[in-house]
From TrEMBL:
Residues of the HTH iclR-type domain: 23-84
Species whose genome carries this gene: Sphingomonas lenta
Protein name as it appears in the record: Transcriptional regulator
PANTHER family the record matches: HELIX-TURN-HELIX TRANSCRIPTIONAL REGULATOR, ICLR FAMILY (PTHR30136), TRANSCRIPTIONAL REGULATOR (PTHR30136:SF34)
An example Gene Ontology molecular-function term: DNA binding
Keywords: Transcription, Transcription regulation
Amino acid sequence: MSRAKSSTPENGIHARGLPAQPNNSLITGIDCLQQLVGAGGPIGSREVARRMGLTHTRVNRILGTLAYMGLLERDADRRYRPGPRLHALAAQSMMASGLLPAALPTLKELRSDGYTVALGTIWNGQVCYLFHERPGQSIEGAILRHELWPADHSTIGVALLAAQDGPPGPIPPAPGNVPESLLPGQDIETTVEAARKRGYAVLKFEDDIVSIGTTIGHPPVAGVAISSRHIGDNFIPDISKRLQAAADAIEQRLASGG
């Protein structure tokens, strides 16, 4: 995970410098869109306003504009949900990045060893899993089926934060449905610093689950990780080398467009 570091401790992948004249209306509109899409189902404008701490009038105007653009649509109860243009934008963005197609051959190789295998990126302290497959799960069930996850509970998150300069920023609290609890002594500052020293991230959970993760790209564009039960400390360095080779293979395939 010896990667070029970003210049600010943002909890995204790259440094984000505020432009001289930011369009605050655009920023709020996209924040509203992401809040709604992340709700997990249709949601009303008043609930979006409550969650964001904004006036209902302002949010209602923004959501109405997004619906006019086709990014949202209303159901029979006049609640908002993703619209057809958002689906088109999501498909176009996945095609343009090329990350998932470039990674799938390597992810399939890793899964053959019986590991849980994951590919993801980070934004505002949360990991977005493009691929997350447990042993025995189908490929179809592994792609874009995992909710956003707090970065301190993910070796992809820890590895990507370690690739940035400075201390990590705030991490959203873990949701109540987190199935594994971290063993004590693994706060985000400790795990990030350890990842910087060793070149990859390691997290240990209850039920003897160990996860190892590293970054992809220079500078990082994503991370790849594996996890399994009963991984002894003496096996971790060799597994990390295999994982780094996998990350390098994904990076090369991404660079070549294949």
